[in-house]
Give the backbone structure.
Amino acid sequence: MTSADRQGTDEHEQIVNWDGVLSTEERQRIAARIRSAFGAVGARIPDIEVIDGKRLNLRDIVFDYIGKERPTEADIEMADKIAGGLERKVKELEERLRRDQLSERAAVDLMREALGVLRALQQLRGLRDPSRGAVARKAVLTRVDDERRWLEFMKKVKR
């Protein structure tokens, strides 16, 4: 589709400038998604992220921490330290989105990275929630009970 073709479409459908560098308003709109209420929901935590000059296997670190049934105080302190670095990284990515001249692809890639880092940050900050372990255990037990009921049902149907 050419630029002329897009001109004929509804003006609300043309969200960004597909033909090159985004305008300031377009970059601001993409940056605003980072801090939206549910922006990080479903975002993919990056495998590797450079935080404060250190290369971290971020996804592995986050899943190691949130997988612990009862994180120690040392675990929580380390997670808080990492979370501080992640917060600085999100601010850096937001600033680049607002400041730099970017193509749509580069802006969306920055937004996705920021959302993934923000999700990791939220997961690590959630370690301080005392109900976290209980909620996770309840969810697993509910799934196990559902499976048992399903298997019992399937046995009855086969008879």
